Amino acid sequence: MTTIQTTDKADPIKADPREAILKAAADRILHYGYNKTTMSEIAADCGMSAGNIYRFYPSKIDIAEAMTREFGKSSRALYDDIIRDAARSATRKMNDFFIARLERTFKVFAEHPKLMELAEIMERERPEYLAEEHAQERMQIEHILEEGRISGDFALPADLTITADLVQCAMMKFRIPQLWTTEQLDALRPELEGVLSLIFTGLSARR
Fold first, then answer.
1. Which in 71, 102, 136, 179 has the greatest CB count within 10 A?
2. pLDDT at 16
3. How confident is the model at residue 3 (pLDDT cuts 50, 70, 90)?
4. Considering the entire predicted model, what is its pTM?
5. CA distances to 22, 33, 51, 64, 158 from 48, in Å
6. DSSP character for 14?
7. What single string gives the DSSP state of each residue in 23-72?
8. What separation in angstroms does the CA of 111 have from each of 23, 66, 97, 114, 180?
9. What are the φ and ψ backbone dihedral angles of 26, each rounded to 5 degrees?
């Protein structure tokens, strides 16, 4: 997963060589795939020697992780905008959070199918990073749950972390849906909303 920002090979290297490397790597990986991209090719694309690129990224998987972190950072910023919107109820925030996540990841992987290979490699070679990403997302879910508990929308136990973890597990299919299904976005949206409806029934405050 990446920011999906590409660079024109004719452009001069920018002041930050790390940014130039990541953009050159994105061009290569999105077109040829992770396994068919070499460090030497990335270095050549951004006008560096093969040896020089290792000063910034010791290995290709380190570049892949940096790309994934950029995607995660931009995704969290989008979801934080939803969470901070005072005009939305906690229920609406939860719904919009997961709809935005589904649409963002589905469209990125649909437009760039070579990213599936990258996602599978990251899962295998950098599980600690994926655990970190899941933990950060779980904190966002927990924030929505806490707001719902305060507003009275949700009746929740004291340990919100466990509830957030269960909600996250229930919604895992919709994180990168192409890993699990061949269904298209139009079919996945109502399915996601159906699962959320069950979750909201379980979370609803009893009156």
1. 102
2. 85
3. very low
4. 0.86
5. 13, 21, 8, 18, 54
6. P
7. HHHHHHHHHH-STT--HHHHHHHTT--HHHHTTT-SSHHHHHHHHHHHHH
8. 17, 20, 21, 9, 17
9. -60, -45
**CA proximity to 35, closest of 68, 3, 66, 64:** 64
**C-alpha torsion 185→124→35→48, nearest 10:** 110
Which amino acid, residue 94? M
Where do we find the tokens 């990224």?
57
Q: If you average pLDDT over residues 114-124, what whole number do you get?
A: 93
Kindly give, in sequence order, each residue whose CB lies less than 8 Å from that of residue 124, ignoring residues fewer than 6 positions away: none
- Is residue 77 a contact partner of residue 70, using CB atoms and an 8 Å limit? no
Encode pLDDT of 56-91 as tens digits. 999 999 999 999 999 999 999 999 999 999 999 999
For residue 169, what are the contacts with CB-CB under 8 A and spacing of at least 6?
Answer: none
38: tokens are 């070499």
3-state secondary structure of 154: strand
Rounded Cα gap, residues 155 and 146, in angstroms: 10
Condensed to tens digits (0 to 9), the pLDDT of residues 16-48 reads 899 999 999 999 999 999 999 999 999 999 999
Structure tokens given for 23? 């953009």
Distance CA 57, CA 64 (A): 10
